[in-house]
Request: fold
Amino acid sequence: MSKIHIAPYINFQGQAREAMEHYHKVLGGKLDMFASDEQGRPRPAAPGEPIMFAQLESDDVVIIASDGNPKYPAKVGEHIGLSLRGSDRARLTSAFEGLADGGQVKMPLTDAPWGTAGWLTDKFGISWNLDIEKS
Reply:
């Protein structure tokens, strides 16, 4: 069985670059920031571009962030969720379905250039982003 990982996913509503650069300065490690191209695929973010996805890895610390989606503006208390990631498609699909039970699917599991992604709010109001990495 392959491992799955959990990390905080923070919607910074337009301040992801500033926040992630600050955390990188404080924690060190490797910081990757991506914008999206015309087809919605990730590409390295140029200075000043909105951040579609950012990830800071430092030792065993992982923080994931974005500038959010204008269609879903973050409200206080909803700007942070959990990201569940790994390569075990069956296990993560089952987790997505279980978390969605009694909750609200915001984006069903959908194929993307980097793998498969989905987003939901569980019945307790917790936001979850699931990413199934390509094998």
